[in-house]
Amino acid sequence: MSAEGRVAAVVPFPGDPRTVALLRVVRPEFRVERFVPPAGHFLAPTPCVITTCLRKNASHGLCAAHDAAWRKAGRPEREAWTADPANWPAGLSLDVTSCRVNGCRYSGGLSFLCDLHLADLNGLHSRGRSISVREYAAAAPELSRPAAGRCGFPDCGYGISRSGLCDGHHYRWTKVGRPPLATLPAELKLRNTPSFSVAGLPPLAALEFQYLLQLRTDQRRSKVVPSSWVRAVNTVIAEGVSSVRDRPAHHWRHLSLNYTTVPQLFTDLLEALGDLDGPVEEWDRDVWRPDRLGYSIEERQRVAPLDFTGITQPWLRQTVKRYLRLRLARTELRSAARSLHDFVLFSRFIAETRPDRQNDPAVLDRPLLESYIGWVGRRTVEQKGPYFGQPVAPGSRSRLLSAVSTMLETWRRYDWQPALPANARIHRDEYPRPRGLKANFIDEHLMEQIESEQNLALLDPETRALVLICRDEGLRISEALTLKTDCLKKTPSGRWALVHYKSKDKSFRAIPASRVVVDAIREQHGRVRERFGGACQ
Protein backbone atom coordinates (compact mmCIF):
# COMPACT_ATOMS: atom_id res chain seq x y z
CA MET A 1 0.00 0.00 0.00
CA SER A 2 1.27 3.49 -0.83
CA ALA A 3 1.93 6.17 1.80
CA GLU A 4 -1.21 8.00 0.68
CA GLY A 5 -3.21 4.80 1.01
CA ARG A 6 -1.97 4.19 4.54
CA VAL A 7 -2.91 7.74 5.52
CA ALA A 8 -6.37 7.35 3.98
CA ALA A 9 -6.88 4.09 5.88
CA VAL A 10 -6.17 5.81 9.20
CA VAL A 11 -7.63 9.25 8.56
CA PRO A 12 -10.61 9.64 6.17
CA PHE A 13 -9.69 13.24 5.27
CA PRO A 14 -5.93 13.30 4.60
CA GLY A 15 -6.34 16.49 2.54
CA ASP A 16 -7.29 18.51 5.64
CA PRO A 17 -4.26 20.76 6.36
CA ARG A 18 -4.69 20.17 10.10
CA THR A 19 -4.45 16.43 9.53
CA VAL A 20 -1.44 16.79 7.25
CA ALA A 21 0.38 18.91 9.85
CA LEU A 22 -0.25 16.32 12.56
CA LEU A 23 0.73 13.35 10.42
CA ARG A 24 4.01 15.11 9.76
CA VAL A 25 4.93 15.20 13.48
CA VAL A 26 3.12 12.29 15.21
CA ARG A 27 5.39 9.24 15.29
CA PRO A 28 4.01 5.79 14.37
CA GLU A 29 4.45 4.42 17.91
CA PHE A 30 1.73 6.81 19.15
CA ARG A 31 -0.54 6.48 16.12
CA VAL A 32 -2.48 3.55 17.60
CA GLU A 33 -5.98 3.29 19.05
CA ARG A 34 -4.69 2.09 22.43
CA PHE A 35 -1.20 3.12 23.55
CA VAL A 36 0.29 0.89 26.27
CA PRO A 37 3.47 2.44 27.70
CA PRO A 38 6.23 -0.20 27.78
CA ALA A 39 8.24 -0.81 30.95
CA GLY A 40 10.54 2.10 31.66
CA HIS A 41 8.55 4.51 29.47
CA PHE A 42 8.07 8.02 30.90
CA LEU A 43 4.27 7.62 30.89
CA ALA A 44 4.38 4.19 32.56
CA PRO A 45 3.03 4.52 36.13
CA THR A 46 4.71 3.05 39.21
CA PRO A 47 3.57 -0.54 39.98
CA CYS A 48 1.12 -1.20 42.79
CA VAL A 49 2.86 -2.68 45.85
CA ILE A 50 0.46 -5.64 45.75
CA THR A 51 2.38 -7.96 43.44
CA THR A 52 -0.69 -9.73 42.02
CA CYS A 53 -2.20 -6.44 40.89
CA LEU A 54 -1.94 -5.55 37.20
CA ARG A 55 -2.94 -1.94 37.78
CA LYS A 56 -0.36 0.72 38.49
CA ASN A 57 -0.29 4.04 40.25
CA ALA A 58 2.35 6.38 41.66
CA SER A 59 0.29 7.45 44.68
CA HIS A 60 1.44 6.10 48.05
CA GLY A 61 2.35 2.74 46.54
CA LEU A 62 -1.23 1.53 45.97
CA CYS A 63 -3.26 1.67 42.79
CA ALA A 64 -6.51 3.63 42.87
CA ALA A 65 -8.66 0.53 43.38
CA HIS A 66 -6.60 -0.83 46.29
CA ASP A 67 -6.27 2.61 47.84
CA ALA A 68 -10.07 2.96 47.78
CA ALA A 69 -10.43 -0.53 49.29
CA TRP A 70 -7.95 0.35 52.05
CA ARG A 71 -9.94 3.50 52.88
CA LYS A 72 -13.22 1.56 52.94
CA ALA A 73 -11.61 -0.90 55.35
CA GLY A 74 -11.17 1.96 57.84
CA ARG A 75 -7.51 2.81 57.03
CA PRO A 76 -5.91 -0.03 59.00
CA GLU A 77 -2.14 -0.43 59.38
CA ARG A 78 -1.00 -0.26 55.74
CA GLU A 79 1.71 -2.93 55.60
CA ALA A 80 -0.39 -5.55 57.38
CA TRP A 81 -3.37 -4.79 55.15
CA THR A 82 -1.39 -5.12 51.92
CA ALA A 83 0.18 -8.38 53.15
CA ASP A 84 -3.23 -10.07 53.66
CA PRO A 85 -4.17 -12.04 50.48
CA ALA A 86 -7.85 -11.48 51.26
CA ASN A 87 -7.42 -7.81 50.34
CA TRP A 88 -5.70 -8.39 47.00
CA PRO A 89 -8.78 -8.66 44.71
CA ALA A 90 -10.08 -5.14 44.12
CA GLY A 91 -11.65 -3.03 41.42
CA LEU A 92 -11.79 -4.93 38.13
CA SER A 93 -9.19 -7.54 39.08
CA LEU A 94 -9.61 -11.01 37.59
CA ASP A 95 -9.86 -12.66 41.01
CA VAL A 96 -12.72 -12.10 43.41
CA THR A 97 -12.89 -12.37 47.17
CA SER A 98 -15.50 -13.73 49.54
CA CYS A 99 -18.30 -11.56 50.82
CA ARG A 100 -17.12 -9.66 53.90
CA VAL A 101 -19.94 -11.13 56.06
CA ASN A 102 -18.59 -13.99 58.16
CA GLY A 103 -19.85 -17.36 56.99
CA CYS A 104 -21.21 -16.09 53.65
CA ARG A 105 -20.54 -18.56 50.80
CA TYR A 106 -20.87 -16.06 47.95
CA SER A 107 -18.35 -13.74 46.32
CA GLY A 108 -18.22 -10.00 46.84
CA GLY A 109 -18.86 -7.39 44.19
CA LEU A 110 -19.54 -3.73 44.89
CA SER A 111 -18.33 -2.77 48.40
CA PHE A 112 -17.01 -6.36 48.77
CA LEU A 113 -20.50 -7.65 49.61
CA CYS A 114 -22.52 -10.30 47.77
CA ASP A 115 -25.69 -9.15 46.08
CA LEU A 116 -27.91 -10.40 48.91
CA HIS A 117 -26.04 -8.61 51.66
CA LEU A 118 -25.58 -5.48 49.54
CA ALA A 119 -29.34 -5.30 48.99
CA ASP A 120 -29.88 -5.79 52.74
CA LEU A 121 -27.40 -2.98 53.54
CA ASN A 122 -29.05 -0.65 51.00
CA GLY A 123 -32.39 -1.39 52.66
CA LEU A 124 -31.00 -0.27 56.00
CA HIS A 125 -29.71 2.93 54.40
CA SER A 126 -33.10 3.62 52.81
CA ARG A 127 -34.74 3.27 56.23
CA GLY A 128 -32.45 5.96 57.64
CA ARG A 129 -29.78 3.82 59.32
CA SER A 130 -26.25 5.11 58.75
CA ILE A 131 -23.94 2.11 58.94
CA SER A 132 -20.59 1.39 57.26
CA VAL A 133 -19.78 -1.79 55.35
CA ARG A 134 -17.33 -2.78 58.08
CA GLU A 135 -19.95 -2.40 60.84
CA TYR A 136 -22.60 -4.19 58.79
CA ALA A 137 -20.33 -7.14 57.92
CA ALA A 138 -19.50 -7.72 61.59
CA ALA A 139 -23.17 -8.20 62.61
CA ALA A 140 -25.01 -9.20 59.40
CA PRO A 141 -26.99 -12.46 59.32
CA GLU A 142 -26.13 -15.27 56.91
CA LEU A 143 -28.38 -15.17 53.83
CA SER A 144 -28.85 -18.03 51.37
CA ARG A 145 -30.45 -18.68 47.99
CA PRO A 146 -31.13 -21.77 45.85
CA ALA A 147 -28.03 -23.45 44.43
CA ALA A 148 -27.51 -22.65 40.72
CA GLY A 149 -24.13 -24.17 39.92
CA ARG A 150 -20.61 -22.81 39.77
CA CYS A 151 -19.47 -19.53 38.22
CA GLY A 152 -18.49 -19.76 34.54
CA PHE A 153 -15.36 -17.64 34.99
CA PRO A 154 -12.18 -19.78 34.71
CA ASP A 155 -10.98 -21.23 38.04
CA CYS A 156 -13.76 -19.54 40.05
CA GLY A 157 -15.48 -21.76 42.64
CA TYR A 158 -18.22 -19.42 43.88
CA GLY A 159 -21.92 -19.98 43.26
CA ILE A 160 -23.77 -18.41 40.32
CA SER A 161 -25.69 -15.17 40.84
CA ARG A 162 -27.05 -14.60 37.32
CA SER A 163 -25.91 -14.72 33.70
CA GLY A 164 -23.72 -17.69 34.57
CA LEU A 165 -21.43 -15.68 36.88
CA CYS A 166 -20.95 -15.24 40.61
CA ASP A 167 -21.71 -11.90 42.28
CA GLY A 168 -18.11 -10.64 42.04
CA HIS A 169 -17.57 -11.53 38.39
CA HIS A 170 -21.08 -10.39 37.44
CA TYR A 171 -20.25 -6.98 38.89
CA ARG A 172 -17.03 -6.88 36.84
CA TRP A 173 -18.85 -8.09 33.71
CA THR A 174 -21.38 -5.24 33.91
CA LYS A 175 -18.63 -2.65 34.56
CA VAL A 176 -16.79 -3.54 31.34
CA GLY A 177 -19.89 -3.38 29.13
CA ARG A 178 -21.24 -6.99 29.28
CA PRO A 179 -18.93 -8.55 26.66
CA PRO A 180 -19.28 -12.21 25.62
CA LEU A 181 -18.38 -14.35 28.64
CA ALA A 182 -15.58 -16.09 26.74
CA THR A 183 -13.80 -12.76 26.30
CA LEU A 184 -14.34 -11.51 29.87
CA PRO A 185 -10.90 -12.57 31.24
CA ALA A 186 -9.10 -10.85 28.36
CA GLU A 187 -11.28 -7.74 28.70
CA LEU A 188 -10.58 -7.49 32.44
CA LYS A 189 -6.86 -7.93 31.88
CA LEU A 190 -6.92 -5.22 29.23
CA ARG A 191 -8.82 -2.85 31.53
CA ASN A 192 -6.26 -3.41 34.30
CA THR A 193 -3.32 -2.63 32.02
CA PRO A 194 -2.37 1.07 32.19
CA SER A 195 -3.03 2.48 28.74
CA PHE A 196 -4.34 5.49 26.84
CA SER A 197 -7.16 4.83 24.39
CA VAL A 198 -8.61 7.14 21.74
CA ALA A 199 -11.48 4.78 20.90
CA GLY A 200 -14.68 6.66 20.08
CA LEU A 201 -12.95 9.88 19.04
CA PRO A 202 -13.28 11.24 15.51
CA PRO A 203 -10.11 10.59 13.43
CA LEU A 204 -8.75 14.13 13.67
CA ALA A 205 -9.40 14.46 17.41
CA ALA A 206 -7.80 11.04 17.95
CA LEU A 207 -4.69 12.21 16.12
CA GLU A 208 -4.61 15.34 18.29
CA PHE A 209 -4.72 13.30 21.50
CA GLN A 210 -2.00 11.00 20.17
CA TYR A 211 0.11 14.11 19.59
CA LEU A 212 -0.48 15.09 23.25
CA LEU A 213 0.93 11.73 24.40
CA GLN A 214 3.99 12.27 22.24
CA LEU A 215 4.50 15.78 23.64
CA ARG A 216 4.27 14.68 27.27
CA THR A 217 6.73 11.87 26.52
CA ASP A 218 9.26 14.14 24.81
CA GLN A 219 9.02 17.01 27.28
CA ARG A 220 9.31 14.70 30.33
CA ARG A 221 7.86 17.34 32.65
CA SER A 222 4.51 15.90 33.74
CA LYS A 223 2.86 12.54 33.23
CA VAL A 224 -0.69 11.84 32.10
CA VAL A 225 -3.04 10.39 34.71
CA PRO A 226 -5.07 7.61 33.00
CA SER A 227 -8.31 8.59 34.76
CA SER A 228 -7.88 12.21 33.62
CA TRP A 229 -7.16 10.99 30.10
CA VAL A 230 -10.43 9.03 30.04
CA ARG A 231 -12.39 12.06 31.28
CA ALA A 232 -10.82 14.32 28.67
CA VAL A 233 -11.55 11.85 25.84
CA ASN A 234 -15.14 11.33 26.99
CA THR A 235 -15.62 15.11 27.19
CA VAL A 236 -14.64 15.51 23.53
CA ILE A 237 -16.83 12.58 22.48
CA ALA A 238 -19.81 14.10 24.33
CA GLU A 239 -19.29 17.46 22.59
CA GLY A 240 -19.59 15.80 19.19
CA VAL A 241 -16.82 17.87 17.56
CA SER A 242 -14.35 16.65 14.93
CA SER A 243 -11.39 18.50 16.46
CA VAL A 244 -10.43 19.88 19.87
CA ARG A 245 -9.70 23.14 18.05
CA ASP A 246 -13.41 23.53 17.29
CA ARG A 247 -13.81 24.95 20.81
CA PRO A 248 -11.58 27.48 22.65
CA ALA A 249 -9.48 26.46 25.66
CA HIS A 250 -11.74 28.17 28.22
CA HIS A 251 -14.70 26.14 26.92
CA TRP A 252 -12.96 22.82 27.58
CA ARG A 253 -11.67 24.04 30.95
CA HIS A 254 -15.21 25.06 31.94
CA LEU A 255 -16.44 21.53 31.19
CA SER A 256 -13.79 20.10 33.56
CA LEU A 257 -14.12 22.37 36.60
CA ASN A 258 -14.36 19.49 39.08
CA TYR A 259 -11.01 18.03 38.08
CA THR A 260 -7.48 19.38 38.44
CA THR A 261 -5.44 17.72 35.69
CA VAL A 262 -8.07 17.50 32.93
CA PRO A 263 -8.12 21.27 32.20
CA GLN A 264 -4.33 21.24 31.92
CA LEU A 265 -4.51 18.46 29.33
CA PHE A 266 -6.74 20.62 27.15
CA THR A 267 -4.56 23.70 27.70
CA ASP A 268 -1.36 21.87 26.76
CA LEU A 269 -2.98 20.25 23.73
CA LEU A 270 -4.42 23.47 22.32
CA GLU A 271 -1.14 25.32 22.90
CA ALA A 272 0.75 22.58 21.07
CA LEU A 273 -1.73 22.57 18.19
CA GLY A 274 -1.45 26.35 18.02
CA ASP A 275 2.31 25.97 17.72
CA LEU A 276 1.80 23.79 14.64
CA ASP A 277 -0.10 26.65 13.02
CA GLY A 278 2.43 29.27 14.13
CA PRO A 279 5.55 30.57 12.36
CA VAL A 280 7.90 28.00 10.92
CA GLU A 281 10.90 29.75 12.48
CA GLU A 282 11.03 29.06 16.22
CA TRP A 283 12.67 32.42 16.94
CA ASP A 284 9.55 34.20 15.61
CA ARG A 285 7.25 32.49 18.10
CA ASP A 286 6.28 33.91 21.47
CA VAL A 287 7.14 30.59 23.15
CA TRP A 288 10.52 29.00 22.37
CA ARG A 289 10.76 25.23 22.80
CA PRO A 290 14.34 24.24 23.69
CA ASP A 291 14.10 20.94 21.81
CA ARG A 292 13.11 22.80 18.63
CA LEU A 293 16.05 25.15 19.05
CA GLY A 294 18.41 22.17 18.86
CA TYR A 295 19.28 21.81 22.53
CA SER A 296 20.13 18.31 23.72
CA ILE A 297 18.37 16.61 26.62
CA GLU A 298 21.38 17.45 28.83
CA GLU A 299 21.15 21.16 28.02
CA ARG A 300 17.39 21.52 28.36
CA GLN A 301 16.92 19.35 31.44
CA ARG A 302 14.56 21.02 33.94
CA VAL A 303 14.25 24.11 31.74
CA ALA A 304 10.69 25.05 30.76
CA PRO A 305 9.92 26.59 27.35
CA LEU A 306 10.86 30.27 27.15
CA ASP A 307 7.48 32.02 27.30
CA PHE A 308 7.60 35.70 26.25
CA THR A 309 3.86 36.31 26.55
CA GLY A 310 4.36 37.66 30.08
CA ILE A 311 6.04 40.73 28.55
CA THR A 312 2.95 42.78 27.73
CA GLN A 313 4.60 45.66 25.80
CA PRO A 314 5.03 44.49 22.15
CA TRP A 315 8.13 46.64 21.53
CA LEU A 316 9.82 45.34 24.69
CA ARG A 317 8.91 41.74 23.88
CA GLN A 318 10.51 41.95 20.44
CA THR A 319 13.65 43.58 21.87
CA VAL A 320 13.99 40.97 24.64
CA LYS A 321 13.58 38.15 22.09
CA ARG A 322 16.29 39.71 19.94
CA TYR A 323 18.56 40.18 22.96
CA LEU A 324 18.11 36.64 24.34
CA ARG A 325 18.67 35.11 20.92
CA LEU A 326 22.00 36.92 20.87
CA ARG A 327 22.78 35.83 24.44
CA LEU A 328 22.02 32.17 23.75
CA ALA A 329 24.99 32.10 21.40
CA ARG A 330 27.34 32.30 24.39
CA THR A 331 25.40 31.50 27.57
CA GLU A 332 23.54 28.43 28.79
CA LEU A 333 19.82 27.96 28.34
CA ARG A 334 19.12 28.04 32.08
CA SER A 335 20.69 31.50 32.39
CA ALA A 336 18.55 32.81 29.53
CA ALA A 337 15.43 31.43 31.23
CA ARG A 338 16.34 33.27 34.44
CA SER A 339 16.92 36.49 32.50
CA LEU A 340 13.53 36.12 30.83
CA HIS A 341 11.91 35.93 34.26
CA ASP A 342 13.68 39.18 35.18
CA PHE A 343 12.37 40.89 32.04
CA VAL A 344 8.82 39.75 32.82
CA LEU A 345 9.12 41.51 36.17
CA PHE A 346 10.47 44.62 34.43
CA SER A 347 7.48 44.54 32.07
CA ARG A 348 5.13 44.26 35.03
CA PHE A 349 6.81 47.28 36.64
CA ILE A 350 6.29 49.40 33.50
CA ALA A 351 2.64 48.32 33.29
CA GLU A 352 2.06 49.33 36.92
CA THR A 353 3.93 52.66 36.92
CA ARG A 354 3.36 53.95 33.35
CA PRO A 355 -0.01 52.50 32.25
CA ASP A 356 -0.51 55.36 29.78
CA ARG A 357 2.76 54.71 27.90
CA GLN A 358 2.64 50.99 27.15
CA ASN A 359 3.31 51.48 23.43
CA ASP A 360 6.06 54.09 23.79
CA PRO A 361 9.69 52.82 23.87
CA ALA A 362 10.79 56.32 24.91
CA VAL A 363 9.39 55.51 28.36
CA LEU A 364 12.81 53.94 29.09
CA ASP A 365 14.40 57.08 30.46
CA ARG A 366 16.51 57.68 33.56
CA PRO A 367 13.57 58.67 35.83
CA LEU A 368 11.83 55.37 35.03
CA LEU A 369 14.99 53.37 35.75
CA GLU A 370 15.52 55.18 39.04
CA SER A 371 11.98 54.24 40.01
CA TYR A 372 12.74 50.65 38.99
CA ILE A 373 15.83 50.56 41.23
CA GLY A 374 13.66 51.62 44.17
CA TRP A 375 10.90 49.16 43.20
CA VAL A 376 13.40 46.29 43.12
CA GLY A 377 14.76 47.35 46.52
CA ARG A 378 11.27 47.14 48.07
CA ARG A 379 10.37 43.74 46.60
CA THR A 380 9.62 40.81 48.86
CA VAL A 381 9.59 37.08 48.14
CA GLU A 382 6.27 36.21 46.47
CA GLN A 383 6.68 32.44 46.32
CA LYS A 384 5.01 30.49 49.12
CA GLY A 385 7.58 28.98 51.44
CA PRO A 386 9.80 29.69 54.44
CA TYR A 387 11.00 33.01 52.95
CA PHE A 388 7.58 34.28 51.85
CA GLY A 389 7.16 38.00 52.55
CA GLN A 390 10.82 38.59 53.39
CA PRO A 391 12.93 41.14 51.44
CA VAL A 392 14.53 39.80 48.27
CA ALA A 393 18.22 38.94 48.81
CA PRO A 394 20.80 41.46 47.53
CA GLY A 395 22.11 38.95 45.00
CA SER A 396 18.68 38.52 43.46
CA ARG A 397 18.14 42.29 43.32
CA SER A 398 21.53 42.72 41.63
CA ARG A 399 20.56 40.11 39.06
CA LEU A 400 17.31 41.94 38.25
CA LEU A 401 19.15 45.22 37.72
CA SER A 402 22.01 43.60 35.80
CA ALA A 403 19.65 41.90 33.33
CA VAL A 404 17.99 45.21 32.40
CA SER A 405 21.29 47.12 32.38
CA THR A 406 23.00 44.60 30.07
CA MET A 407 20.04 44.58 27.69
CA LEU A 408 20.08 48.40 27.49
CA GLU A 409 23.82 48.43 26.78
CA THR A 410 23.39 45.81 24.04
CA TRP A 411 20.48 47.82 22.60
CA ARG A 412 22.69 50.89 22.47
CA ARG A 413 25.82 49.06 21.19
CA TYR A 414 24.09 47.58 18.13
CA ASP A 415 21.96 50.68 17.50
CA TRP A 416 18.67 48.83 17.57
CA GLN A 417 15.63 50.89 16.67
CA PRO A 418 13.98 52.86 18.09
CA ALA A 419 16.94 54.67 19.63
CA LEU A 420 17.22 54.76 23.42
CA PRO A 421 17.38 58.01 25.39
CA ALA A 422 20.99 58.85 26.19
CA ASN A 423 20.39 58.69 29.95
CA ALA A 424 18.72 55.22 29.89
CA ARG A 425 21.41 53.52 32.00
CA ILE A 426 21.74 51.63 35.26
CA HIS A 427 25.22 52.05 36.75
CA ARG A 428 27.18 49.31 38.47
CA ASP A 429 27.51 51.26 41.75
CA GLU A 430 23.71 51.34 42.01
CA TYR A 431 23.53 47.59 42.63
CA PRO A 432 22.96 46.56 46.27
CA ARG A 433 26.02 45.68 48.33
CA PRO A 434 26.56 41.88 48.39
CA ARG A 435 26.58 40.02 51.66
CA GLY A 436 29.23 37.55 52.79
CA LEU A 437 29.45 34.17 51.09
CA LYS A 438 27.38 31.34 52.51
CA ALA A 439 29.14 28.05 51.99
CA ASN A 440 26.99 24.92 52.32
CA PHE A 441 29.04 22.04 53.69
CA ILE A 442 27.77 18.56 54.37
CA ASP A 443 28.07 17.72 58.05
CA GLU A 444 30.66 15.12 58.95
CA HIS A 445 28.15 12.73 60.51
CA LEU A 446 26.15 12.82 57.27
CA MET A 447 29.26 12.08 55.19
CA GLU A 448 29.96 9.09 57.43
CA GLN A 449 26.49 7.73 56.61
CA ILE A 450 26.96 8.35 52.89
CA GLU A 451 30.34 6.60 52.89
CA SER A 452 29.17 3.63 54.96
CA GLU A 453 29.19 0.41 52.92
CA GLN A 454 26.40 -0.97 55.10
CA ASN A 455 24.16 1.97 54.24
CA LEU A 456 25.03 1.79 50.54
CA ALA A 457 24.10 -1.91 50.54
CA LEU A 458 20.55 -0.96 51.59
CA LEU A 459 19.98 1.02 48.37
CA ASP A 460 18.63 -0.46 45.15
CA PRO A 461 21.36 -0.90 42.49
CA GLU A 462 20.34 2.14 40.39
CA THR A 463 20.25 4.54 43.36
CA ARG A 464 23.53 3.15 44.72
CA ALA A 465 25.24 3.78 41.37
CA LEU A 466 23.86 7.35 41.33
CA VAL A 467 25.10 8.06 44.88
CA LEU A 468 28.58 6.70 44.13
CA ILE A 469 28.92 8.79 40.95
CA CYS A 470 27.82 12.01 42.69
CA ARG A 471 29.90 11.30 45.79
CA ASP A 472 33.18 10.25 44.19
CA GLU A 473 33.12 12.24 40.94
CA GLY A 474 31.46 15.46 42.11
CA LEU A 475 28.67 15.43 39.51
CA ARG A 476 25.32 17.11 40.02
CA ILE A 477 22.36 14.75 40.09
CA SER A 478 21.08 16.30 36.84
CA GLU A 479 24.44 15.60 35.20
CA ALA A 480 24.57 12.01 36.46
CA LEU A 481 21.05 11.34 35.17
CA THR A 482 22.08 12.23 31.61
CA LEU A 483 25.17 10.00 31.43
CA LYS A 484 25.33 7.96 28.22
CA THR A 485 26.05 4.24 28.21
CA ASP A 486 29.47 4.95 26.69
CA CYS A 487 30.48 7.50 29.35
CA LEU A 488 33.59 5.52 30.34
CA LYS A 489 36.67 6.16 28.22
CA LYS A 490 40.23 4.89 28.58
CA THR A 491 43.01 7.45 28.58
CA PRO A 492 46.34 6.88 26.73
CA SER A 493 47.90 6.04 30.09
CA GLY A 494 45.40 3.19 30.58
CA ARG A 495 43.27 4.83 33.29
CA TRP A 496 39.52 5.17 33.16
CA ALA A 497 37.89 8.58 32.74
CA LEU A 498 34.24 9.56 33.14
CA VAL A 499 32.95 11.77 30.30
CA HIS A 500 29.92 13.89 31.19
CA TYR A 501 28.13 17.03 30.11
CA LYS A 502 28.92 20.04 32.32
CA SER A 503 25.81 22.21 32.41
CA LYS A 504 27.64 25.27 33.77
CA ASP A 505 29.68 25.95 30.65
CA LYS A 506 27.81 23.79 28.10
CA SER A 507 30.71 21.45 27.40
CA PHE A 508 31.78 17.86 27.89
CA ARG A 509 34.64 17.09 30.24
CA ALA A 510 36.54 13.99 31.28
CA ILE A 511 37.47 13.36 34.91
CA PRO A 512 39.36 10.41 36.47
CA ALA A 513 37.01 7.63 37.55
CA SER A 514 37.63 5.53 40.64
CA ARG A 515 37.51 1.75 40.45
CA VAL A 516 34.32 1.74 42.57
CA VAL A 517 32.59 4.09 40.13
CA VAL A 518 33.81 2.16 37.08
CA ASP A 519 32.36 -1.08 38.49
CA ALA A 520 29.06 0.64 39.39
CA ILE A 521 28.70 2.15 35.91
CA ARG A 522 29.46 -1.17 34.22
CA GLU A 523 26.84 -2.93 36.33
CA GLN A 524 24.29 -0.22 35.54
CA HIS A 525 25.15 -0.47 31.85
CA GLY A 526 24.45 -4.20 32.01
CA ARG A 527 21.08 -3.62 33.66
CA VAL A 528 20.11 -1.05 31.02
CA ARG A 529 21.17 -3.35 28.19
CA GLU A 530 19.29 -6.30 29.70
CA ARG A 531 16.11 -4.27 30.18
CA PHE A 532 16.04 -2.01 27.10
CA GLY A 533 18.37 -3.67 24.61
CA GLY A 534 21.70 -2.69 23.14
CA ALA A 535 20.31 0.28 21.17
CA CYS A 536 19.38 2.25 24.31
CA GLN A 537 21.74 5.15 24.96
Brief account:
The protein is mainly alpha-helical and 537 residues long. It is 44% helix and 4% strand.
Jot down its keywords:
two-stranded antiparallel sheet, 537 residues, disordered N terminus, three-stranded antiparallel sheet, globular
Notes on the structure:
There is one protein chain. This protein is mostly helical. Helices cover 44% and strands 4% of the residues. Helix 10 crosses helix 12.
Radius of gyration (CA) equals 30 Å
Q: What is the total tally of β strands? A: 7
Order of helices and strands: HHEHHHHHHEHHHHEEHHHHHHHHEEEH
Low-confidence runs? 1-13
SS-derived structural category? mainly alpha
Shape: globular
Largest sheet: 3 strands, antiparallel
Give the N-to-C terminal Cα separation.
Answer: 33 Å
Please report the number of helical segments: 21
Helix content range: 40-55%
Please indicate the percent range of residues in DSSP E strands (runs of 2 or more). under 5%
What is the residue-averaged pLDDT?
84
Adjacency order of strands in the biggest sheet: 5-6-7
